[in-house]
Design a protein that fits this description.
heterodimer, A: alpha+beta, 6 strands, B: 202 residues, alpha+beta, 7 strands, 36% helix
Chain lengths: 127, 202
């Protein structure tokens, strides 16, 4: 099972620093926060259950590719997303039984900054 | 006598058929004429659920054209289809086309976004007093159709599209915030795996 977690962490493009003896956690580094160590953890039963569920979706996303490869890819994208939405490095990210990668500590929700504001894509400057 | 009656019945049926087709044809012509005149139409044409909505026709909110995902709906049911730009300068090259947000599962698509990233989108939506679908729809649309950056990740065979969006104060035009919608699509199917609001590009 450790091999699977290690493959997920590598597919998420995280640098592995060390692997715990109990085979359920990996200490790694992300390019977003080079000086910080982040612990990635997953109980073996949760990881295998989620990998099985993810394997069923592979044919809809990468037709013709192997289920095991696709399961690792999907789990790694979930892990990567859990890190990418953050503004600061988490201490740990753990996979729960529902397939969510939960980062700790949680972050503050951004404050509403203006009463009358709108999100826009500003047109690009042209020469 | 019987033969004459039969002939009369057949002739009557043919006449009725011709008349009804004429009426239908007139109705179609009338409808076409109405469609040609902007002032005469009382019927709003709402995009079909999941249908691609061309730029400049965004007068409906995503609640109108995002198809619902019920518990019995297939994970391949299309929620919304987006226009996607070509990945210029990125290897492997991916041409322009369409990418779909399907219902998916807890691992990808609409259900994944609702399960895992709803609070992230709601936080950005709250900054502009919007429904999260409005914010997500706009963010995904711009990231895919005019990205600032596209990255190919060989480790999971995905492209990540990213675009900077600004939060503008309508009262004074000042920029009061920003974020990057990052959208991951599978190279094989071009389907959207996830879309997240982040503070950095892919």
């Amino acid at each position: 099972m450790l091999v699977l977690l290690q493959r997920v962490v590598e597919a998420a493009e995280l640098e592995i620093v060390s692997v715990a003896d109990d085979a359920t956690s990996i200490l790694c580094r992300s390019a977003q926060w080079p000086g910080q160590h982040i612990e990635i953890a997953a109980a073996s039963e949760d990881l295998s259950a989620n990998a099985e569920m993810a394997a069923r979706d592979v044919k809809h996303l990468w037709p013709g590719r192997g289920e095991e490869w696709g399961a690792v890819a999907l789990l790694s994208i979930g892990l990567r997303s859990a890190l990418d939405v953050r503004t600061s490095a988490p201490m740990s990210v753990a996979l729960n039984r529902h397939g969510s990668w939960v980062a700790y500590p949680p972050e503050e929700v951004p404050e509403k900054v203006a009463r009358n504001a709108k999100w826009i894509a500003r047109p690009r400057k042209t020469n | 006598m019987k033969r004459t009656l039969l002939r009369l019945l057949i002739a009557g049926a043919v006449a009725v058929g011709l008349l009804s087709s004429q009426t239908a044809s007139n109705a179609e012509q009338s409808a076409e004429a109405d469609a040609g005149s902007e002032d005469t139409s009382w019927v709003a044409v709402v995009p079909e659920h999941g249908e691609y909505v061309p730029e400049g026709e965004g007068k409906f909110s995503p609640q109108d054209y995002w198809a619902p995902c019920g518990i019995f709906d297939s994970n391949t049911k299309i929620v919304r289809t987006f226009n996607r730009a070509a990945t210029a300068g990125v290897t492997p090259y991916l041409g322009s086309g369409l990418s779909s947000l399907a219902c998916g599962s807890s691992q990808w698509g609409y259900r994944h976004i609702v399960d895992r990233h709803l609070t992230d989108w709601q936080a950005r939506a709250a900054q502009a007093n919007e429904n999260w679908r409005v914010t997500a729809d706009y963010g995904i649309e711009w990231a895919l159709k005019d990205p600032d950056r596209v990255v190919y990740r060989s480790s999971n065979d995905t492209y990540c599209f990213s675009r900077k969006l600004l939060l503008i104060n309508n009262n004074n035009g000042q920029v009061v915030g920003s974020y990057y919608p990052n959208v991951a699509i599978a190279r094989g199917s071009k389907n959207i795996i996830t879309a997240i609001p982040t503070s950095s590009q892919c």
